[in-house]
Design goal:
Elements lengths: L2 E7 L2 H13 L6 E6 L5 H15 L5 E5 L5 H7 L7 E5 L3 H10 L4 H14 L8
Parallel strand pairs: 1-2, 1-3, 3-4
Helix pairs in contact: 2-3, 4-5
């Protein structure tokens, strides 16, 4: 199973994991998060990020999910990426996370496609749907 690692602003990652746990009625396995606070130095967080990444990698790779492309959490995540082994997506939301949890046993390429689609397709205009 592909591990999941969320790197987000503050407690967003843990909150998303808690929400997913509520929806699934269990906390998913092989999932960790790292919250980046306003005063954190990203270079100080890199060793911790590498340790957490290793904890969720059971040999099939890791998908790193982050919130805003170009922001500090995403820049930190980018330093962990290794094509085909440690991949990353920005713009994480609950539909993306749930899709990632559901497809992480299908291989990295399928996981990326399904998680991206889940994030995008989870954004709907409620009056027009």
């Amino acid at each position: 199973m592909i591990g999941l690692f969320l790197i987000t602003h503050d407690a967003l990652g843990e909150t998303l994991i808690q929400c997913a746990s509520h929806v699934l009625n269990r906390r998913p396995e092989q999932i960790m998060q790292l919250g980046v606070a306003a005063g954190d130095d990203p270079s100080d967080l890199l060793p911790l990020a590498r340790k957490l990444l290793a904890l969720v990698d059971a040999g099939e790779g890791v998908l790193v999910l982050t919130d805003i492309y170009g922001a500090t959490p995403a820049n930190l995540a980018a330093k962990l990426l290794v094509a085909g082994r440690v991949e990353g997506l920005a713009g994480v939301n609950l539909p993306m996370l749930l899709r990632a949890i559901g497809y992480r046993d299908k291989g990295m390429e399928t996981l990326i496609t399904r998680a991206t689609g889940g994030g995008r397709d989870g954004v709907l205009n409620l009056l027009r749907h």
